[in-house]
Amino acid sequence: MQEFTYVRQAARVVFGAGTLARLREEVERLGCSRAVVLTTARQAGLVARARELLGPLAAGEFTRAVAHTPTDVTASALDLVRELGADCVVAIGGGSTTGLSKALAVRTGLPQIIVPTTYAGSEVTPVLGETDNGVKTTQSSPEILPETVVYDVDLTLGLPVPISVTSGVNAMAHAIEALYAPQANPVTDELALRSIALMSAALPGIAADPTDREARADALQAAWLAGTCLGAVGMGLHHRLCHILGGSFGLPHAATHTVVLPHVMAYNAGAAPDAMRRIAGALGAADAPAAVYDLVSALHGPVSLGELGLREENLARVVELAVGASYPNPREITADGVAALLRDAWEGRGPASESRALPTAELRTLTDQVVASFDGTPDPRVRRLLTDLVRRLHGFVADNDLTEDEWQYAIGFLTRTGQMSSDTRQEFILLSDTLGVSSAVDLLTNSRTAESTPSAVLGPFYVEGPPPLPVGADISQGMSGTPLWTSVRITDPEGVALPDAVVDVWQSNDEGFYDVQLHDLDGPALRARFRSDAEGLVEFWSILPSAYPIPGDGPVGEMLDAAGRHAYRAAHVHFMISAPGRQRLVTQLFVAGDPHQDSDVVFGVKDALVVDFPERKGPAPDGRELDGPWHSLEYTFHLAPATPR
Ligand code: BEZ
Ligand code: FE
Hints:
By secondary structure, this protein is of the alpha/beta class. The protein is built from 19 helices and 19 strands.
């Protein structure tokens, strides 16, 4: 059992794009009317924007925040705060500006609103580090924690890629060390893992397109979560080493974190196997330290302390300082161990691995060469897709230390998948379906609006040009089964009926077969095309569909067997609905209670598509008399307006 103490840090967080515009509202919310705006000389341009937004609430500004929060700079800012009679501090910038804001707050008790422009994370910690005559001291207290943090994704769009990478890995270091901190608890664990997953996926996206808002939002959110961990639990060897390298040897903060992190992870891996396994899971890799190193390498981030300006003769002094202090760390700190990890970090080698050392530098060069071979690709989208594919494939090969036999097997598997495919059997799509890729592409393409009915994959059994039938028809063509009366309405997202919609339906019979699989059958069955009436209504008879296995006689079946997965699709009816001025909806309705609902082999089930097909007795709604019970299906489909993507 894990015992822990968890203290919630009470900062108000406003997150979004363009949220800087809410600055005035946030100042007023704190009951303040004279804000002093802080930033660095390099970001002084932001002050004009803040002044404009704050209007009469802007009392003045201080644009001389610098790294390491020197006390003489704080003293000048404090004079200004007093002179202006400021009643709150608004800090817009990176770690240096946040540091100055905290230093002022701890001296004056003034409330703070922090608007971070990097991934430093210090905006959500109650910790302040200051330097006085070159000596760094750290203190922690509740007044240091800002009252409000405004995260504006737009302010990070211009953060250069190299700074985004180092700042992002710096944030990742907070999350990684939080997972093996003595104070770790279920809350910080979850925040840390989510942060690592978000950041590691966001950074390649930012490198490919620095203005990608989604990737930027993920990175900023990851930074917030990581900062929250940093504020909640103590940090270990990694933070200690970075503190020494920055404080005593002047190395740049975030870049130092970026170089050191994989090496400390490798050092601690054996002593914190559970944390390392979870980190690897969040990174989607087999070996966590190697994956962080590879990520940095792939993004052309710094990998060597030598490159950052640390002189070789200083390595021994760093070891002395690291061994001299006492702080929690999962593995005992030994001089030899720290010396070895620092040597690797100084030279820029990959992190030491318990398994056979990987030729990481050569792999990195190889990946870079292949990526560079696409530099001349005229279409930027094609370039992005190809280079990202290469990076991920190389990463997959390296992270899993793929053997030649495994590679041969994969090539053979794909070859057989192609050979199995024909006009009537698409084994590649089946592979994509069973790996969830088809559903992922479908989600991205067709299910972006919450108000419209979710989509689901088309599947291989749709046949172009189904037989047109009048509303009320029976599509079962005399097949045996339990009668099913379907009554569906086609509307817009507000519920306004859409008449004259083309509604194609197709489904399996009660043994799980589609008509195209029943070779003795004469003509189409259990498929039809209807048109909705003036009320948007389509009604028809069929039979209850059954769950069925997808074809298992090819490579996909082999994969499912190897994984111990079943091959069943939960019972469903397919719909393809088109109406003028609306996005086409391809979806499925699932019979509630089907045992395969939570393990559908193609991952097509969505909660909103699971429907009761209740049993009924007596005469049917269209007056039809039945011998026994029948079932009904009622549903309303909401079609989104057609908007070109
Ligand atoms: C189907 O529902 O018809 C289906 C979808 C994906 C793969 C196989 C079948
Ligand atoms: Fe189906």
